[in-house]
Design brief:
Length: about 775
């Protein structure tokens, strides 16, 4: 992929996210001029960047959106919900296009049709889709209508050009470029643009008739006339940002000769092509003049020159150069006579692709630079590879304690063993610092995951006929990029569930004494080595009795559970697979997979989900997730000679209890810790391993906590805590849910890391 295109795609996602956020905020605060300017600036920057590539549909669509925002910025229009919908739909379409470009390096085949439909909607508040396009097209004077500015060329050179053009069937393109006086302040370089025109035969400078008494060095007062053999499409592409400042005419040798000799190019029955050309220019000029006050001074001057050239071609010379819009419109109407202006179509401006051997050139389109923190953008795969190397370093570091033990036990060298341990301590400190530094690089704010929800809440709220306000807190809280990426789908399920099931319609809320606008809260906070995300609403809440009845009807609970389940356990039923309270299946809910997918997705991340609800007051769902999924700290234990790892964040303590202090309750052994009864699970029995503890020895118990549940794992021996790079289970053991993954230890052995939730579930089934 072209390096410039790759950079554009990397920056485009941020620009589109800024546009979405700005439009949603602008819809809430329509009178904020600073906000309008900010959204316009971002859209303008995006349009400028997109113009560097051969994506004409993308540039045209962005230009239409920019024109609408510019009209809002200028006070000519007030942004309403319909306009916001059209703008958001346009940038959504562009986002989809860019995903296609990322894979195929071109726009999809349907881009032209999709863009045309949205451009029509965006242009409607401005007076129609074609108005601006025709205003730009009118300056492309038809190929045999000779403009008066042709006299700015050297007459001797024009004579020579006319002579050799008449010996061939070729035509030449003549260009007049009149830069805006303030072009330098928009980072435009007229001389550079002229120098970029390919196949140039002649360039002459056009100076003003009279120079101002006080010369302004920062005002551009000159213009250019250029003769070139380049195609009109190439000229259009080069001047795509200043299209209202150019006029292009395509002439053959005979048309130039008539102009030099003063012969009027009168329309005759033998010259119908000239008549059609002139009428096309006049019809385009008439439609351009319907824009009224929105025509710039440069555009009006170009239109007047085009009208004068067309009039001379029809044998009715008129002085249109100094006419104002009403006078010019009257002249055009008179010259057209009975010709219907809507039937004389202006030739379309062809879109071309840059030649493959011609390098893309950056265009300084946005002068609003800003100095800030230096940021180096790095490919995500490089950061992932660096994280893998950190994991390998941890594995190598963890091998040093084994080497120290071998030095003392096998070779009897306590001094060597101590030196190895000293080296391990220093390497451990460096590895931890390196790991923390790489983790910082991988850390992203939760706003990356939260940014999609203002748009989601707005669109679904309108679709469901509900007035909803989203409040976001703690979006600056940091978490590992893998956690944030995986968090997206569970959050979408929860927010959609709140919108569909939790939040009432405005009428229902007013009837229950609530304000008509519901509130959904999305909050995040760092909690030690974890991050907590809470999604809450002030809707109708969860009715425990209704949930229990639905679960019983679907066969998810027994009749005994229907009678005995408490409110908290009843609310927890919404996470059961296949459960739904929706009466009908829709594209939003009703299939019974949403909340189950939330719990499964969060559990896969090593997190937990809890829900609290109060009927009539609302519902709150809390997700607790680890800050990182890359490097995991585990406690190593062994059972029946096999070592296992348990995530340290789930471990409360490790204890040794005399066998005599163990008790039995129902089908399980228990131990009393500080007045609390803790069930003890025989890990060997759960994992079906042949091991029986010595009845006279102390019991080694690892106390773990998962949510509200606390249990002890009976193991053979405790080892050390180690940092490991956790790999997912693959191959024959991929089905084994009791294992969260594998890791390589320093002595080269593979460590199986337990999935504590599944282990506790297996223990319940075994007992």
């Amino acid at each position: 992929m072209n390096a410039l295109l790759a950079q554009f795609l990397a920056e485009a996602a941020d620009l589109l996210a800024q546009v979405d956020e700005g439009l949603l905020q602008l819809e809430r605060e329509p009178g904020d001029p600073a906000l309008v300017n900010e959204v316009f600036r971002v859209a303008h920057t995006f349009k400028g960047s997109s113009g560097l590539f051969a994506f004409p549909e993308l540039t045209r669509l962005t230009h239409a959106a920019e024109d609408l925002l510019d009209a809002v910025r200028g006070g000519g229009l007030s942004l309403d919900s319909g306009m916001t919908d059209d703008l958001l739909a346009s940038f959504d379409l562009i986002r989809g296009w860019l995903a296609h470009v990322t894979t195929h390096e071109r726009l999809p085949s349907s881009a032209a049709g999709d863009a045309a439909r949205l451009i029509t909607k965006l242009r409607a508040p401005l007076g129609g889709e074609k108005a601006q396009d025709e205003a730009a097209a009118v300056v492309h004077v038809a190929r045999r209508v000779v403009p008066a500015w042709l006299d700015h060329f050297d007459q001797r050179w024009l004579t020579e050009a006319s002579t050799w053009l008449r010996t061939t069937s070729s035509r030449m393109r003549f260009l007049r470029y009149t830069p805006d006086q303030g072009c330098f302040f928009r980072a435009e370089d007229p001389l550079h643009l002229v120098s970029e025109i390919p196949a140039v035969d002649r360039v002459d400078v056009v100076t003003p008739d009279s120079w101002p008494p006080e010369f302004d060095a920062y005002a551009c007062l000159i213009g250019f006339v250029v003769a070139t053999r380049a195609g009109v499409g190439e000229i259009d592409y080069l001047f795509r940002y200043v299209g209202d400042q150019i006029e292009v005419v395509e002439l053959d040798g005979e048309a130039i000769r008539r102009h030099l000799t003063g012969e009027p190019p009168t329309a005759t029955p033998h010259d119908p092509e000239l008549v059609a050309d002139a009428q096309a220019v006049l019809a385009g000029a008439l439609r351009c003049l319907t824009l009224g006050d929105t025509i710039s001074g440069t555009r009006l001057s170009a239109t007047a020159h085009a009208v004068g050239a067309a009039a001379r071609a029809l044998g009715e010379p008129v002085d249109a150069a100094e006419a104002d819009p009403p006078e010019l419109r009257e002249i055009v109407t008179r010259l057209l006579g009975d010709a219907a202006p809507t039937e004389a179509e202006v030739p379309p401006r062809p879109a071309i692709e840059m030649p493959a051997d011609k390098p893309d050139r950056a265009h300084a389109d946005d002068p609003g630079g800003q100095v800030g923190t230096k940021i180096l953008k790095v490919d995500q795969e490089k950061v992932d590879h660096l994280m893998e190397l950190v994991g390998e370093l941890n594995v190598a570091k963890n091998g040093l304690p084994f080497l120290a033990d071998a030095a003392e036990e096998e070779f009897g060298s306590r001094v060597l063993s101590r030196r190895i341990r000293d080296q391990h301590a220093g390497l451990h400190r460096i590895a931890e610092d390196l790991q923390a530094a790489v983790m910082d690089v991988r850390m992203l704010p939760l706003s990356v995951a939260f940014n999609r929800f203002p748009r989601l809440v707005r669109d679904l709220g309108r679709r469901l006929g509900k007035s909803v306000e989203l409040t976001v807190h703690g979006e600056d809280t940091m978490a590992d990029k893998d956690v944030i990426e995986a968090l997206g789908d569970p959050l979408v399920h929860l927010v959609r569930n709140s919108l569909d099931h939790g939040v009432e319609t405005p009428a229902e809320r007013l009837a229950s004494g609530k304000p008509p606008t519901a509130r959904i809260t999305l909050a995040a906070v760092a909690d030690g080595d974890a991050v907590t995300v809470e999604i809450g609403d002030d809707g109708r809440g969860v009715d425990p009795d209704r949930v229990k009845r639905k679960a019983y009807q679907k066969g998810l609970i027994s009749e005994d559970e229907l009678e005995t389940l408490g409110e908290a356990d009843a609310v927890d039923l919404v996470f059961r697979p296949g459960f739904s309270t929706a009466e009908q299946v829709s594209d939003l809910s009703g299939r019974g997979v949403g909340m189950d997918a939330v719990r499964a997705g969060v559990a896969k991340l090593g997190g937990t989900v809890t829900m609290k609800s109060e009927p009539g007051r609302g519902t709150s769902t809390t997700l607790r997730l680890p800050l990182s999924m890359a490097v995991t700290q585990v406690m190593v234990v062994s059972v029946a000679g096999q070592r296992f790892g348990v995530p340290v964040d789930l471990v409360q303590e490790n204890i040794r209890v005399p066998a005599a202090e163990m008790s039995r309750m129902l089908h399980s052994e228990v131990v009393v810790l500080r007045g609390e009864v803790v069930p003890v699970i025989d890990l060997a029995r759960v994992l079906e391993m042949p091991w029986t503890p010595d009845p006279d020895s102390d019991r080694a118990i690892l106390v773990v906590s998962l949510g509200d549940r606390r249990a002890g794992l009976l193991v053979e021996r405790f080892h050390r805590e180690v940092d490991v790079l956790l790999k997912p289970m693959e191959g024959l053991l991929a089905y084994a849910g009791e294992f969260a993954g594998t890791a390589l230890l320093g002595d080269g052995l593979v460590l199986l890391v337990l999935n504590v939730k599944e282990v506790l579930g297996l223990a319940d089934r075994v007992s």
